[in-house]
Amino acid sequence: MEERVVLVTASTQEEARAIGRRLVEKKLAACATVLPNVTSIFEWEGNVSEVSECVMVLKSHAGAYGALEAEVKAHHSYEVPEILALPVVQGSSDYLAWVRAMTMASG
């Protein structure tokens, strides 16, 4: 299976929605689900931070990942945005066919 779930955090719901919409319009993701109001705790530049963020759950394809990552980085406010692609091990064959049809994998 070449489908991917890509997790991306964003500083605000507006930023996540804008990036998600751009990715869907460019057929780099079939769907962008925005989960608002998550708390992230991490160390950055020697300080432990606790911030409110949004998480995007993107449904995509391995063939679209490079362009998806570049697009996120080009429009993200973070110096080093979280972008993690996870392989899909199993899923509804109808849904996965739709993901492939909606992303660059179809072309």
Care to describe what's here?
32% of the residues lie in helices and 39% in strands. By secondary structure, the chain is an alpha+beta fold. It has a single domain, classed as Alpha-Beta Plaits (2-Layer Sandwich), CATH 3.30.70. Strands 2-3-1-4 form a four-stranded antiparallel β-sheet. Strand 2 and strand 3 form a beta hairpin. It is elongated. The mean pLDDT is 95.
Summarize the structure.
With 107 residues, the protein is α+β, with helices and mostly antiparallel strands. It is 32% helix and 39% strand. The protein is built from three helices and four strands, in the order E-H-E-E-H-E-H.
- Coarse morphology: elongated
CATH architecture: 2-Layer Sandwich
Distance between the termini: 17 Å
Reading off the top of the CATH hierarchy, the class is best stated as: Alpha Beta
Average pLDDT score: 95
Q: How much of the sequence is in beta strands? A: 35-45%
Element order, helices and strands? Answer: EHEEHEH
Helix content: 25-40%
Indicate the low-confidence ranges by residue numbers. none
State the CATH topology. Alpha-Beta Plaits
Q: Biggest β-sheet: count, sense, barrel? A: 4 strands, antiparallel
Number of strands: 4
Structure classification: alpha+beta
The total of helices stands at 3
Whole-number total of structural domains: 1
